[in-house]
Amino acid sequence: MTAGLNGALLDKSLSDQALLELTGNAPDFRVLPDASVLKIGGQSVMDRGRAAIYPLVEELAAAKNTHQLLIGTGGGTRARHAYAVGAGLGLPTGVLSMLGYLMARYGVPVVGSDGFAAVPLHLEQSHAVVFAGMPPFGMWHPVPDQGVIPPYRTDTGIFLVAEVYGCKQLIYVKDEDGLYTANPKTDAGATLIPRATAAEVIAMDLHDVVIERPVLTMMQNARFIRSVQIINGLKPGLLTRALAGEHVGTIITAD
């Protein structure tokens, strides 16, 4: 199999269908199989300030005693300001991250996109790292169907980290109990969807989705992250329970 793949890579175009099938059949290898990946929402959690963040920081600090954690953050309103400036100037957009400062007292480092080679060492020593969730689109990003706001933002970037490193699980920590039929903040008739497949959520064509839509498409092709859970980070204890494998929010599966 390896010899055949090596020969095909030398002899065939990288878009050749037979070559793609060979690469698709290559053995899977999990780089960080024991690590759990967490996405801490920027606008949904970080922007709420001390009352929301401090209890979550304490829960993360306790959780890292029994779990290896890759903690990704969203940019929240700061990212929206960057989008506004970038769109107004016709420039690429970017994101900032701040959770790392609050986790510093617990010995948790912040790593940039060029520092992931040291992540295994950090996990061995401190059991956790913090990273910015925005994919590293330094000067480019995939062209969106409409407008200029990149559709591949922090939810998607953190999914890619979890998938590429073959991590144990991915939990999105938001300010809602999970995926709803509508925005529960503005629609009193919105109902919680406790479980669904990615295809089912796409088919629903909801006006408001609690995670970025590209995650649903990527999950269908994923090798490792075949499900994600969305939980309410404003409710103490739910993150700990989710890390332990409990269903405490919405679970979306690949199939």
Describe what is shown at a glance.
By secondary structure, this protein is of the alpha/beta class. It contains 10 helices and 10 strands. The protein is globular, with a radius of gyration of 19 Å.
Task: For this entry, give a set of tags.
single chain; 10 helices; alpha/beta; Carbamate kinase; two-stranded antiparallel ribbon
End-to-end distance, in Å? Answer: 28 Å
Number of extended strands: 10
The total count of helices amounts to 10
Structural class: alpha/beta
Instruction: Please tell me the total number of domains.
Output: 2
- The rough form would be described as globular
Instruction: Please mark out the parts with pLDDT under 50 across 5 or more consecutive residues, or reply none.
Output: none
What's the CATH class of the largest domain, please? Alpha Beta
In spatial order, strands of the major sheet run 3-4-2-1-5-9-10-8
> How many strands, what sense, and barrel or not for the largest sheet?
8 strands, mixed
